[in-house]
Amino acid sequence: MNIGNLIKIAISSLFRNKMRTALTMLGIVIGIASVIAMVSIGQASTQSVKSELSTMGSNMIMIMPARQHRGGVDMGMSSSKSLDDKDLLSIQKNTRYVAAVSPMVSSAKQLIYGNNNHSCSVNGVSDAYLEIRKYELADGVMFTEEDVKRYNKVCVIGQTVVKELFTNGENPIGKSIRFGSIPMTVIGVLDSKGQNGMGEDQDDIVLAPYTTIQKRFLGINYFNMLFASATSEDESELAATEITYILRSNHGIKSGATDDFDIRTQEELVSTISSVTSLMTTLLAAIASISLVVGGIGIMNIMYVTVTERTKEIGLRMAIGAHNRDIMLQFLCESVILSLIGGIIGIIFGLIIAYVASKLMHMPYVVSEMAILGSFLVCAITGIFFGWYPAKKAANMDPISALRYE
Length: 406
What we know:
- There is one protein chain.
- This protein is an alpha+beta fold.
- The chain has 13 helices and twelve strands.
- It has helices at 3-16, 18-55, 85-93, 129-133, 145-149, 159-165, 210-218, 236-250, 266-309, 311-319, 324-360, 369-395, 399-404; strands spanning 60-65, 68-70, 73-76, 98-113, 116-125, 137-140, 154-157, 176-179, 182-190, 206-209, 225-230, 261-265.
- Strand 8 and strand 9 form a beta hairpin.
């Protein structure tokens, strides 16, 4: 018996019992749809996080003081004074793979304009901060190196601050807002960036010269953090290595001793998040695959019933010359077709679910070709694995006993 005839007979047999066939396929449909949807949503979330991080600067490097411990008590990073002007100048002058560097000092203040006020952290930075963090100006200008040298009381504000303070639609440029009791002149407004992947509002921001925050607000001569950008994303690790060498030298840290600073690159953060999301995607897909096993068992059960119902048909085919191999292939073909049709429907539903989920969660729509190809293979294997034993049982029937079966 050729393959074409086997397929025709198998399809004809399946369509004789449409409701039974549909219910049997349901387990496969649910399993495949779940796997496709979970893999697509997992990959979309990874891509979304990478996209969000790239808006913060894909080649950004963060240098922070190490956590301090005194008498066995964790004092955190805020008590450290390990980063200062010497480190800033050394990184600016002695690195090959660092394109820009900016210090940051932060002070939480109540911002006041007229009758409006808004609680916000004021970040003292240099003019290179915009380039490093990929911020753009919507209006006005960024403060200059001259403003930094003179501790000028100027600032650049984000869109959220504009909405909270300038409620009557005034142009903020040139206006004076108070940081506590200190007036600061707004010279620029940042373009909107929205929320990042961690839900933080990137527009709720105030930037001022770091020397102004150090001298006029905090009375300190060290930095809370340093932000740097590598010359390219691929050279982030080389830039981090350069910075590590410079800071260890500046701080007199001997070989084998623990650093008093931490350096983190966006590449490390992306890699960590990607690993976590990939693991979660794999776990979800594995859980969804359980329904595939249930669907396969359903196929086996129905094939057993089919073999029993068609015992006389099997005996008749054998009596007119059908070989055991032909009978086995016939029922195996039915099992595989049943599984593949369920798989195709499952793939379609899975892609639809992934599309709807991507729109509801505001993520990119990602189609995983490997997941689709894998689903086809799984469907074929499921049909063969769970259909083989019933098919073998049918092939091993005694023709005479089969013809006498009632």
